[in-house]
């Protein structure tokens, strides 16, 4: 049988240094003007708060706030999701004004904007980025000769 050698901690500084973790302090950014992106579908509403360049500050959704099933698609759930995301952005990053971008056709479109205005954040613009149909796909079965 082989004998195990015991190396005292004084003789093995390399192993001790490898177990220590260096933690960096996360610097919180102060962002006074940003963007609020609301993606509203029939099944869920996702609210993302970003800075002017598009870097995400906070996000929330109806599903992340405890709503399940068909309740995620309601206007009330969208308002709760928007309140959580905006509250986090205002307290952690000092958000005071925002441009709003809406995407989708769900019930949470208006509720998210109302929640934004209730937190006394000035809305600079509201832009609807919902995709529009442009003529559709090629019709089926018209190419036979």
Give the tally of β-strands: 5
Mean pLDDT: 85
- How much helicity do the residues have? 25-40%
Q: What pattern of helices and strands is seen along the backbone?
A: HEEEHEHE
Q: Mind describing the biggest β-sheet?
A: 5 strands, mixed
Shape: extended
Specify Rg, calculated over alpha carbons: 25 Å
Main structural class:
alpha/beta
> Order of strands across the biggest sheet?
3-2-1-4-5
Oligomer: single chain
Unreliable spans: none
Number of helices: 3
Tell me the distance between the termini. 85 Å
Strand content: 15-25%
Structure notes:
- The model has no long low-confidence stretch (mean pLDDT 85).
- The longest helix is centred in the middle third of the chain and has 19 residues, at 75-93.
- A hairpin with a 4-residue loop joins strand 1 and strand 2 (45-51).
- It contains 3 helices and 5 strands, in the order H-E-E-E-H-E-H-E.
- It is of the alpha/beta class and 145 residues long.
- The chain has helices spanning 13-19, 75-93, 108-118; strands spanning 33-40, 45-51, 56-61, 97-103, 122-128.
- The protein has a 5-stranded mixed beta sheet, covered by helices on one side.
Describe, in short, the structure shown.
The chain has 145 residues and is α/β, with parallel strands linked by helices.
Protein traits:
145 residues, alpha/beta, 3 helices, 5 strands
What is this structure's SSE topology?
Layout: H1 13-19, E1 33-40, E2 45-51, E3 56-61, H2 75-93, E4 97-103, H3 108-118, E5 122-128
Parallel strand pairs: 1-4, 4-5
Antiparallel strand pairs: 1-2, 2-3
């Amino acid at each position: 049988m082989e004998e195990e050698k015991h190396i005292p901690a004084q003789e093995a500084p390399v192993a001790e240094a490898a177990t220590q973790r260096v933690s960096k302090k996360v610097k919180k950014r102060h962002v006074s003007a940003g963007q609020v992106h609301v993606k509203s579908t029939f099944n869920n509403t996702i609210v993302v708060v970003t800075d002017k360049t598009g870097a995400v500050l906070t996000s929330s959704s109806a599903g992340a706030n405890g709503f399940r099933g068909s309740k995620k698609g309601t206007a009330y759930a969208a308002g709760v999701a928007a309140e959580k995301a905006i509250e986090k952005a205002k307290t952690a990053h000092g958000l005071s004004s925002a441009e709003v971008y809406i995407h989708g056709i769900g019930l949470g479109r208006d509720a998210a904007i109302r929640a934004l205005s209730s937190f006394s954040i000035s809305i600079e613009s509201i832009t609807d980025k919902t995709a529009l149909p442009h003529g559709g796909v090629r019709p089926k079965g018209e190419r036979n000769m």
